[in-house]
Design goal:
The protein has helices spanning about 15-30, 45-55, 80-85, 95-100, 105-115, 130-135, 140-150, 155-160, 180-195, 200, 220, 240-245, and strands at about 5-10, 35-40, 60, 90, 120-125, 160-165, 205-210, 230. By secondary structure, the chain is an alpha/beta fold. Bound molecules: phosphoenolpyruvate. Phosphoenolpyruvate (PEP) binds near residues 9, 231 and 234. Belongs to the triosephosphate isomerase family. It holds the Pfam family TIM.
Length: about 250
């Protein structure tokens, strides 16, 4: 049984003071649902969020991590640093990191393996560009990201993975994939996971859609058969909007 999972991705928004304000409001609105909720926040907000959400079902996530245990990697954060402050999830391979910070399928794979060796569950982002979609290459692109990102990860570890399908053309653009487009790709992702791991394992993997999800379209997305949740950028910045999406 897959528990639906909706995560916010704050990107580089909210200082610690902003995060505390949000968390207090969100905690007061949150009455507990059948949906797992999480906020993926900037590193500097995580400890404060962990403290405020302690004792609730609201989880916290980071937006990136380094794959090495420790070392001379100026500006980076390790998995054990995140574990120590109680981080539950970590986004890996977001298209903005692929575009601006040289994230590749190879580094995604290293990060996935390191996270799966820890208590933190990875949310691995995949998705095609507009050019790839227009050229009829969307499915090939996503399959290749899955095969490379999940290389050498076994079925036992794979059940802890969350896959977020985020078509690049729908992120932060206000242009959402239709329920049909999102559902079709998420079904393709499930079938690829069946090829890689077999049906029992693939059935347990949470697949989210991300790309301009907001209160008005959350139900259409969440009601598609192979979509188990959403990764929400802009609309997760306001506690009321994010709560409305969770209550879709
Ligand atoms: C995201 O950043 O993962 C995202 C889906 O952003 P938005 O909801 O703003 O399109």
């Amino acid at each position: 049984m897959r528990i639906p999972f909706i995560a916010g991705n704050w990107k580089m928004f909210k200082t610690k003071a902003d995060a505390v304000k949000f968390a207090e409001e969100f905690k007061s609105l949150y009455k507990g649902t059948d949906i797992q909720a999480a906020i993926c926040a900037p590193f500097t907000d995580l400890e404060a969020l962990a403290e405020i959400f302690k004792g609730t079902d609201i989880k916290i996530g980071a937006q990136n991590v380094h794959f090495a245990d420790e070392g001379a990697y100026t500006g980076e954060i390790s998995v054990s640093m995140l574990e120590e402050i109680g981080v539950d999830f970590c986004i890996v391979g977001h298209s903005e990191r692929r575009q601006y910070f040289a994230e590749t399928d190879g580094t995604v794979n290293l990060k996935m393996k390191r996270l799966l060796d820890s208590s933190i569950r990875p949310i691995m982002c995949v998705g095609e560009s507009l050019e790839e979609r227009d050229a009829g290459k969307a499915f090939d692109r996503v399959r290749s990201q899955l095969e490379q990102g999940l290389a050498d990860i076994d079925a036992e570890a794979a059940v802890r993975i969350v896959i977020a399908y985020e078509p690049i053309w729908a992120i932060g653009t206000g242009r959402t994939a239709t329920g049909e487009q999102a559902g079709q790709m998420c079904e393709f992702i499930r079938n690829t996971l069946i090829d890689l791991y077999g049906e029992d394992t693939a059935d347990q993997v949470i697949i989210q859609y991300g790309g301009s999800v907001k209160p008005a379209n959350a139900a259409e997305i969440m009601n598609m058969a192979e979509i188990d949740g959403a990764l929400v950028g802009g609309a997760s910045l306001k506690a009321k909007d994010f709560m409305e999406i969770i209550d879709f």
